[in-house]
Amino acid sequence: MSVAVRELRAGGVILFPTDTLYGLGADALNNDAVEKIYAIKGRDERRPIHCIVADIAMMEKYAEVSDMARLLAREFLPGALTLILKKREGIDTGIARGIGTIGFRIPDDQFCLKLAQKFGRPFTATSANISGRKTELTVKAILGQLSGGISHSNVLQNVRMRNITLVVDAGDPPAGGAERQPSTVVDLSGKEPIILREGAISDADIWNAIRAEE
After folding, report:
1. How far is 192 from 142, CA to CA, in rounded Å?
2. Chain segment 146-167, per-residue pLDDT in tens
């Protein structure tokens, strides 16, 4: 754990297990660290990256946590839910640079929660794959995909692998198998909730929780 915290504080990138799939973690508010994530994934920088926090209190430091967010947090967190919230004024670096929202996860995973607590600030939560390609379930398969690259260019391979400074191998797929889905993403930054992606938590479960409070 201490090694992972040290790597995050140094601006490194870690490959780590979550309650869904393996992720790529970096200091979510560090511009250089977040750029490494985009480089590893070959991801369009216009596509936001979400982050992991330890609890609602940490989330509140960086975003406006609405009553609806608290409702869904009580029902589903820790768990496979990502909440998109309006960021607080002055939060303008890393994943928050150039956008008005931040996506937050509180995973049902002790490694992730303890890492967030010890690190003391958000770290990125994005799947460990090349953008547009299948998210593999084991560290061996993930590293194989990343080292192979899109074009099998040695330069591209070296950039990707050099940017990953620590691998936390949980052995078997952390989520328990190929049937596991990514988190469900709910945008609460507007007047009405919008489910951007149905994942491990069904659309029906989200809407039922919301309607139960009406």
Report:
1. 37
2. 887 444 444 445 545 668 989 9
